[in-house]
Specification:
219 residues; alpha/beta; Rossmann fold; 58% helix; binds thymidine-5'-phosphate
C-alpha cells in the first residue's frame, strides 16, 4: 500500500445518526486548533464521486441491482482514495471522511446480503489496504434515526432518498451490523451514543480524537 504519514479518521452511523453534523463540528475544532484537515464524504467527495452519488441515491433509480450498487460505491471510493485521500495523507494532513468501507460492509455486505467477502475483495482493488486509523460510530435507535432522516428529507425536498427509503427490516440489519463491527474491532471503532444532544455527542467525539492524536504524537 502507498505509505502514509497523516491520520485517517472516519465517521459512521445509520440514517439520522447526526454523524455529518458531528463531522463538521470536529473539522471546525481541529482547524481552529491549527490542524491541516481535508474533509470528504462517501459516496461523493470528489467532483466525479458526486456524480456517482447522484446515480446511487436518486429515488428514481429503483432498478439499480445490489451488485451495481456495490461497485458504484467502490468506484466513488477509488476516485476519492486516489485523487484526494492518499495525496493528503502523504502530505501529513488529517483526513476526515463521512463513511468509508465500514458502510459498505454494513449496507451492501449485511443489509443487502452480498456478504463481507465480496466487499473485502473489491476493497482490496479500490483502497489497496487503506483502513481508517480511527472510526467514530455514532449509534442511534433505528426508529429515532429514521424519523430524523425523514423529517430532514421532507424539509429539504431531498431526492437522494433511494437508500434511506428502504424498509425498516433493512435499517434494523444496518444497525445490528454496525454494532457487530464495533464489537469485532474495539480498538479502531469507537461506539458513541447518538441519542443525546449534539453538544454531548460532540464532547465525546472530541475527547476520543484528542486522546488518539496525543497518543499518536507521543509514538
Ligand atoms: P449519507 O446519508 O451519509 O450521505 O449516505 C448516503 C447513503 O448511502 C446512506 O443511505 C448510506 C448509503 N451507503 C451505502 O449503502 N454504502 C456505502 O458504502 C456508503 C458509503 C453509503
Amino acid at each position: 500500500m502507498t505509505s502514509k504519514r497523516g491520520v485517517f479518521l472516519t465517521f459512521e452511523g445509520p440514517e439520522g445518526s447526526g454523524k455529518s453534523t458531528q463531522l463538521r463540528l470536529l473539522v471546525h475544532r481541529l482547524r481552529t486548533a491549527g490542524r491541516d484537515v481535508l474533509d470528504t464524504a462517501e459516496p461523493g467527495g470528489t467532483p466525479i464521486g458526486v456524480q456517482i452519488r447522484r446515480v446511487l441515491l436518486d429515488a428514481k433509480n429503483q432498478d439499480l441491482s445490489p451488485t451495481a450498487e456495490l461497485l458504484l460505491m467502490f468506484a466513488a471510493r477509488a476516485q476519492n482514495v486516489d485523487q484526494w485521500i492518499l495525496p493528503a495523507l502523504a502530505e501529513g494532513r488529517i483526513v476526515v471522511c463521512d463513511r468509508f468501507t465500514d458502510s459498505t460492509l454494513v449496507y451492501q455486505g449485511a443489509a443487502r446480503g452480498l456478504g463481507a467477502d465480496m466487499v473485502y475483495d473489491i476493497d482490496r482493488i479500490a483502497c489497496r489496504g487503506l483502513v481508517p486509523d480511527l472510526t467514530l460510530l455514532i449509534d442511534v435507535d433505528t426508529e429515532t434515526g429514521l424519523g430524523r432522516a425523514r423529517r430532514r428529507n421532507q424539509r429539504t425536498q431531498e431526492v437522494e432518498t433511494r437508500i434511506d427509503e428502504q424498509c425498516l427490516e433493512f435499517h434494523t440489519k444496518v444497525h445490528a451490523a454496525y454494532r457487530r463491527l464495533a464489537e469485532e474491532e474495539p480498538n479502531r471503532i469507537k461506539l458513541i451514543d447518538g441519542n443525546r444532544t449534539e453538544a454531548e455527542v460532540a464532547a465525546d467525539v472530541w475527547a476520543i480524537v484528542e486522546t488518539f492524536l496525543a497518543d499518536k504524537l507521543a509514538n
